[in-house]
Protein 1
Amino acid sequence: MQLLNVTVAQVAAPAIQAGLGAGPGAVQPVLAGCTLTYACLLIPAARLGARYGYRRLFVARTMVFTAGSLAGACARTPHR
């Protein structure tokens, strides 16, 4: 799912940048931050999955991902 997410975000980056009226470097730090966050949470998520169940963690992660994507889609400017 992460590879799909990063690929979609990279392909959509020029359209996101144009839609928000952002400068040339405003979208790349956001994409890098998403990838870095994923990398940092990979091992703790595996441990939580082993402890609480992979299916339960997958459902929770999908819900958080959907909420985050929805919040990002509602952005009107590249700033907070």
Note: The radius of gyration is 15 Å.
Protein 2
Amino acid sequence: MHTTVTLLADVPAQLLPAQLLPARQLMAFTLASHIILVPLGVALPLITLVMHHRGLRRNDPVALLLARRWSAVMAVQFAVGVVTGTVLSFEFGLLWPGLMGTWGGVFGIGFGVEAWAFFLEAVLIAIYLYGWRRLKPRTHFLLGLPLPAAALLGAFGILAANSWMNTPQGFTLDADGKPEDVHIWSAIFTPMFGPQYWHFVVAMLITAGYTVAGVYAVGWLRGRRDRYHRLGFTVPFTLAAVFTPVQFLLGDSIARSVFHKQPVKFAATELVWRTDTHVPEYIFGRLHPDGSISGGIKIPQFDSILAGFTPGTKVTGLTSVPADDRPTAAQATIAHWAFDLMVVIGSLLILLALWYGWCWLRQRRLPTSPWFFRGAACAGVASVIAVECGWITAEVGRQPWIVYGHMRIAEAVTPTRPISLWIMLGLVIVVYVFIFGSLLAVLLKMRTGWRLADARRAAGERAEEPEADTPYGPRARVPAGDPPSGGGTGAGPAEDGRP
């Protein structure tokens, strides 16, 4: 709440609807919660299939075991992600009826594509889970290949909608200012769509890779140095490390697109008050309502160089538009800090990736320093924070517009009484705490079961969980006349450990 109050601190209260604060809080909370799950939803299918392919190509039972376990995690987090994503979809209509009522016919197709992709991904996940030990290995793997495409299709839908809100096009306005003559393809492929989409997709892959690898990095630090943990770390970390420098280039590309297509947002992100050349770059720092900047590290002329590769590049300032058409000083500071924190985290991840690449290329082994694995263990959390900062930069920097240049957020908010929205926020917080607590409990229980199975297998005992057996081939048959396992007549499980 403090963040949103700060956002509104330098705006006259009488100019803002009373519903705006709780509506913003509710949307911010649900979006920030949902985005924690998005990286695994978008990128874990691809990481799982990479491990699955390795297991099939090399006839590697450890790789197949990891792929099967990751597919179970994928299903659990997808179920929770569908719930939190559906809540967000409803909130667009409930909290921002002005937006959907006026502009839904222009950009709403993106939400339709996302919903369709959700259903398709659910079906594909179910088929993939069912296929273990029931389908031929090659058939099972091929049926899993559409999963990453379905995940990317969902990202396509939501990024198409968001990029349109940043650079709206594909329509004309009638005499009353209402959109008409909608061109769907133009509304989908806006100037910001390409930079936003690829920046987002690569961010999801990096975040999922570092998150999965971080789990095994923790195990490595705790002395679990077996091949299971080595392979579980190496495959996702390698994917993330390869794409980390690519993401840095994509981040530069999207910043340059914002500079050209949304100059006022760029000014807010970089704390540029007046239009000028030879503009300095501030690392952190705070913008005041009078245009002065306190704190931070000032690098002379560097912002102009970053924007146009020369110190003489002219950078548009916040004062180029009226005060009610630009972010406030507090909003600009928040967007600036979020952007800088994202860049700092990205820079540290590049150093971690270079460390890993240097050791692997020179010695064909993992780094031996525990500090590397400590960094790897933190990389997943840091990546999630960077993703959150990216959305804060994009959304806060766009203020006060919900549709850039056409509709302000205050014009789109619901007329529902503020007290009702505060109550709704409280209920959503309670429900989400339960949902995420349940998700954590399920994942921990799965981990415990897998560890017990591994311990039994290491001791030469028969493990009863399905992953102890080969993931393909027919199930063992129960001898004729014998009751099912656990039937109460003394009959035990089948010889291979499966009931």
Note: DSSP finds 16 helices and eight strands in the chain.
